[in-house]
């Protein structure tokens, strides 16, 4: 055990919290430096009048990943935070007026599709079977282990995946594959939406990403009864129980390096020495800003790679309640290809955006005053490249209200009691994520999975990485897995 060894972690996002817990349990002295006043990074919380909102993620998938983290240190997730498996995962409102509920039970969902669309229950069953097949072939290699550690390739499950490369369906796009299962344009739009779960474009992203519906339908979708923000707070509590020290409102300004090895960090309070340093912040920013090494090969590579999409969020405290809505609701656009063209080619907010409305007060009544609801209204937005966000926000707000009012048949605008907005520029400023991207680099290219930064720097000894910008990618469960991969490598190497 490395009782005396000290690690400094930069950032208290999901990745940083995950690795802090695991390293503390391995016997390391762990200090986490976080520029904000809270743990959770992109998964923050907002209070506005009598309303509370989650500021980032809203849907929990891969519950096992969180449960494993707590179990790995002898605790039970359910003793810290209550998840609720959703019967109705999401209510969908199509532009032609069709309403469809995606059910947590795949068989119920298949029947719902057969009843409401021109596709059959069997198409859904076949698609989810295909999705499960991709998961089985890819999860071990692409999600659970380092792609850059030889030991990974000696695992039998990984070999099986590599030997069935054809079944990974990487040659065609997500949309092309979906067309081969579904003929109804509504179902094509429905399943193409899963590309947005990691900020990608369904018309470009390899069909391998059709793995995501398996994760949601076959493995289950959850919400937290106390909001998503309760999850990083639970991880922080667990970390503190294990002796991790958090230093909030202390941005790291620099990573110190001696003889090619990271030896600590510098904050406004001075130098902090450490045996190893772990960055949970954007990998490119780590090289360019904290190491002042913009010519590092990974910094150069990240400058070339396409960032994932971002989000524009309206937090609306509503005076009334909407019984026709559930916790998660999607109001689809008319023209999905045009929407993704705006996001990835024109880098502007779509004229006709798909609108997501998450209402945690449906599960946690304390999140809104009696009779009201807390609406987290998200539209996909392009990465921040200096757009005029004030005018993009004003234009999008009008479109969003028009879409919601058309679908719900009542004046939504009149119900807004309090309001705040989060733009891609805010996300970039608050979390240090380049371009305000939600999930690091996009998965639009076939090679994206292999181009993400590994858990261990090859350029600097003692420097490690976790978080959404590195392998295996963005989203809460993957960021938690990145912390596991980093902790496993540190155990072997240090
Ligand atoms: C609006 C929105 C909706 C989303 N929806 C979902 C969803 O439904 N499901 C899902 O799974 N994911 C979703 N995501 C993505 C998910 O939130 C992220 O992928 C995940 O939280 C990233 O975790 P991370 O470990 O990369 O850390 P981050 O959250 O990026 O945290 C990094 C931390 O580092 C800190 N930091 C940065 N620079 C410094 C410095 N110099 N010194 C000290 N600290 C520093 C930051 O303040 C931050 O706390 C969403 C994100 C947003 C913003």
**Helix fraction by DSSP (H/I, runs of at least 4):** 25-40%
Strand order of the largest sheet: 7-6-15-16-17-14-18
- Indicate the low-confidence ranges by residue numbers: none
Number of helices: 16
From the spread of the alpha carbons, the general shape counts as: globular
Radius of gyration, taken over Cα atoms and rounded to an integer in Å: 22 Å
What does this structure look like?
This protein is α/β, with parallel strands linked by helices and 494 residues long. The protein is 36% helix and 20% strand. It has 16 helices and 19 strands. A 7-stranded mixed sheet has the order 7-6-15-16-17-14-18. A hairpin with a 5-residue loop joins strand 6 and strand 7. Helix 4 crosses helix 8. The longest helix has 24 residues. Bound molecules: flavin-adenine dinucleotide (FAD). The site of flavin-adenine dinucleotide has 37 residues, from helix 1, strand 14, helix 14 and helix 16.
